[in-house]
Amino acid sequence: MYAFSAEPVAGIRVVPLCDAIGPMHESMRQPLLETFPGSTPEMWERIRAEQPEAFGPDGEWVLRFYCFVLDVPGGPTVLVDTGLGDRHSPAASWAPVPGRLEEALSSTELSPADIDVVVLTHLHSDHASGAVVKGEPAFPNARYMVQQRELDWIAASPGNPVGEQTIRPLREAGCLDAVEGRSRLTPDVEIFPTPGHTPGHQSVVIDDHRLVVAGDVVLHPIHLADHTVQYVHDEDPATAAVTRAALLDRIRERDGLIAAPHLPVPFARP
Fold first, then answer.
1. pTM assigned to the model
2. Contacts of residue 90, Cβ cutoff 8 Å, sequence gap at least 6
3. What domains can be seen in the chain, in order of their start residue?
């Protein structure tokens, strides 16, 4: 089951913000059988019939780029991921369109100053670029939370644009918090390591997996059809597949929902 919205979980409302919609850039485009190793033509035929909005006119992958706001009663306002950023961001070299996160946020009657915590699931440019605008933190009152393993991974790649244009300004502003493993934001909201897509990938778990904002653990409906299907741009595809299987199993046990940035619709029941 796919949905555009989700009922509150433990009183927490999770609101999707559509930052952008567009096809995978030509520089990164490959046949889907190569992009998702382990998939089959029969799987793609079924996915195209069930989720036609995930494909363009030539069969290319059309991505949604969702970020998510957690409205926690009596607690912090949490933003999960910050999208593509503007035309000068680290994602601009490949993104199909610039992001429009501030516009999407304003539709919820929130401003950037209302965000208390920003959780970056990982440091790929389509998830982290909107964290900084014109060299300054885009959410001026927020703490930005990233796994230390992810920071170490970026630091090992000198010149990485996310490191230079996103992490360095956040560090210099004194608002970057390195997270070591699991970390609880509220009694019902926890940051939870989900490695594989990147070494320090993390997800946000609400009420023990009744709803999980899962970053790129799940990238495409094909992963819900068969969690063993890999993704060519995972840093560690084998670990990513194990992480995906464990996470989806736990969500199913809790009869929960997954919120995934690149699905055609932001919420799905595995």
1. 0.96
2. 125, 128, 129, 161, 162, 165, 166
3. 2-268 (3.60.15.10)
Q: Which residues of 127-158 are buried (b: 16+ CB within 10 A; e: fewer)?
A: bbbbbbbeeebbbeebbbbbbebbbebbeeee
Amino acid letter, residue 269: R
Minimal CA–CA distance to 154: which of 192, 114, 201, 112? 201
Name the 3-class secondary structure at 257: strand
Structure tokens at 113: 């100053």
Check residue 218 and report its DSSP letter. Answer: S
Please report which residue ranges of the chain form alpha helices under DSSP H: 32-35, 41-50, 101-106, 125-128, 148-155, 161-162, 168-173, 221-225, 237-253
The single residue listed with the structure tokens 């913000």 is 17
Residue 24 binned pLDDT confidence (cut-offs 50, 70, 90): confident
Model confidence pLDDT, tens digit, residues 81-114: 999 999 999 998 888 788 999 999 999 999 999 9
d(CA 80, CA 202): 10
Give the residue among 47, 15, 18, 11 at the shortest CA–CA distance from 32.
Answer: 47
CB atoms within 10 A of CB 241: 20
From CA 205, how far away is CA 192, in angstroms rounded? 7
Cα-Cα-Cα-Cα dihedral sign, residues 74, 84, 5, 212:
negative
Only one residue has tokens 């996470």, namely 247
Is 34 within 8 Å of 112 (Cβ atoms)? no
